[in-house]
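ERR on first pass: missing label on line 2. Operator R.T. fixed the label and resubmitted. Corrected input:
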Amino acid sequence: MADLHIDFAGIKSKNPFWLASGPPTNTGYQVQRAFDAGWGGAVWKTLGDPVINVTSRFSGLNYGGQRVAGFNNIELITDRPLEVNLREIRETKRAYPDHAIIASLMVEPKQEKWHEIVKRVEDVGVDGLELNFGCPHGMAERRMGSASGQVPDLVEKQTYWTKEAAETPVIVKLTPNITDITATADAAVQGGADAISMINTINSLMGVDLDTWNTFPNIAGKGTHGGYSGPAVKPIALSMVAECATQPDIQVPISGIGGIENWQDAVEFMLMGASNVQVCTAAMHHGFRIVEDMIDGLTNYLDEKGLNSAMDLVGQSVSKYKKWGDLDLNHKRVARINQDYCIHCNKCHISCEDAAHQCIEFYTESDGTRALKVREEDCVGCNLCSIVCPADGAIEMIEQPSDVSMTWNERQRLISVFGG
Amino acid sequence: MDSAATHAWKIFDEVKPDMKPKEVMEEANRCLFCYDAPCMKACPTHIDVPLFIKKITTGNMKGSARIIMEANPVAATCARVCPTEELCEGACVLNDASLPIMIGDLQRHTMNWAMKNNPQLFEAGEQNGKRVAVIGAGPAGLSSARELARYGYQVTVFEKQAEAGGLDTYGIVPFRLPKHVALWEVEQIKKLGVSIQTNTEVGKDVSIQAVLDGFDAVILAIGMAHVPPLGIPGEELDGVFDAIQLIERVKSGHVTDRFSGKKAVVIGAGNTAIDAATCLKRLGAARVQIVYRRSEKEMTAYPFEYRFAKEEGIEFRWQTQPKRIEGDENGNVTSVVCAPIMLGEKDASGRRRPIEIDNAPFAINADIVVKAIGQMRDIPLIEAFDLAHDHGVVAVDPLTYQTSNPKVYAAGDVIFGNGKGEAMVVAAAEQGKKTAQAIHEQLLSKI
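pass 2 clean. output:
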């Protein structure tokens, strides 16, 4: 059976599944329940100077009758006294020595503040530190969280201050609310970070109540922007992980966060360069027990793939992720409809007709029934039909024989050498 | 109402519960929103099914109701009585992939919303000065009246019964179609300014000539009449009933203990026979047997009706031909004497011909006999209008719905004959719509 143990920048964990800093890791009680359920590690809800929270705090995005396609929160860092958190961390670490506990930290961008808190949390036995440069709401208005995480200089400086005092590995958690995440990732590395984690939540306004015209979530008739998470953000998170993983200057391990709710999501992040993953929204939606299938599913997947260790997955897809200019312009694929599986909903036809290249047409079979076929010479292989098709196997994208590979960059080089 | 009466009414509540709100949203969201959807084509009135379901998911219930009723003026009824597994749901593309969308139940949900909220969905058209008489306020008549009112015609509907709705109001058992549903549909049509004159029989209370002279066009939508005689001895005995009349009385609130504890035989195996049989069961009959001269394969009841009857404990005796009804000295029914049947070659209707086995008659004990062997046609009225017909089936031009008298159109069961479509409420509604369109096309040039 495959080994799920990971070594993340020196932090050992019996599996790659950590709870991300957030409401599920608010207390020792919760973290201990999570460890009992099987989570390999937990990033404790962000510690810092005590705050006051508001009610309400969360809202969910429903899609097609499904709950929590996306999730938004305006909860701040821990609102419990630091001493209480530290005591519970110590107790939890003592009771669960084989589980990783990472302290998430957020203080004002001052050297002495970072030195002080690092010392206090390391005293209670944490396995690592995660610097919260990410939360977009509330704390940002006090120049913390994403407000400092959006300024590469501040990221570098605060990481440096932390490293001055830290004895355990330092992970810098990055905000996605920035044009180029590699800029702040690089700043973290320059500051001496041992690892980076991403993404924190995304700026969002969840919705507006059609009856009251209040925004969601609503606090006495007022609302504010919150951090967006859940399945809907996964592609954004995955892209940011990939951007950092493909960056040669960024050689530190990456902890993948954002919309992960099962082992399949986790494998994708690991293939794209993450050495472990963190989960929050899915645990808020379903409880800690989801980790059972994450562990079981990942084990079975690794066994099926003939891999001995979860670490063998890390970064396997990175070399496949390129700039657009490196894609083969001569590659061809076309859609083909398999009549044995087609259920005749005609969704491919109308999508192609209205929004693609008008090449899926009706024809009449010999028995008089109407069916659809692709006019392959006009098909650009865009995938739209196969994406909207609700019947598995009904539309296949077929690779076509094509000329020698030629990318845009190669083409431009040739033109510059030989002329257009 | 005392408790016995309350109980009596309770047993006539709708059998099938409404969908729960969560069920509705789950089911509506499951709809694929097909393009050129087969469900829409399979519906005789061509309701834009994907669109009305999409509107449920967006909370646009008024829009959902409008889409449905635009196509079908008696859609609340159809949501309850349509053989959906043979129509829209039977055509759903999900049949093979998983389970078909419960279109009928979703339509019922939207129509329940409409009945509760009474939105103004349609308006009468600008008056064009033309007058149309509709004879019969059943689904075909109502449907044509609604469409004509929207085109701007002044419409008068003549109905011999005390209430409008026809079969929907009187002929379908209340536990499948409560009367208030049909009457709500009547109200919607009245709101468009259609005048419905009930208790008014054309040919008696109003002369045929007055109708022909007083209107620019006439629609004959008189449906069908009572069950024909069996033509066997004993039919006059006390305890022999007409299925249509039986259902009519129950639907009008006449809950009787006349059938309590009785042994009943229902003759025929169509939808009306099943309605009568299940009705008798609810009225307390101890045993109800349906007697049919052909087999299960040939019966005309819909599969869902047949399933329902079996669930209700109705017994079926196939290939059994009633020969005579026997009674006691007081003239009360005591038994039905039947002959066994074997099935021969296919006849003109495509069904195997029943052949009686002469020498093996047997008796079924019965206190009650209900005839449900089809419906008669109002040939005297058809002939009084001097219309061409075949055994009471009025001949119409299939495109214009015009009869042999170009001023008179016909729609609904009155034009339903062997091999000419199905006698369904939804088909009648469509014919009503088409007849209205045809009249509009004919009279447009004269406006």
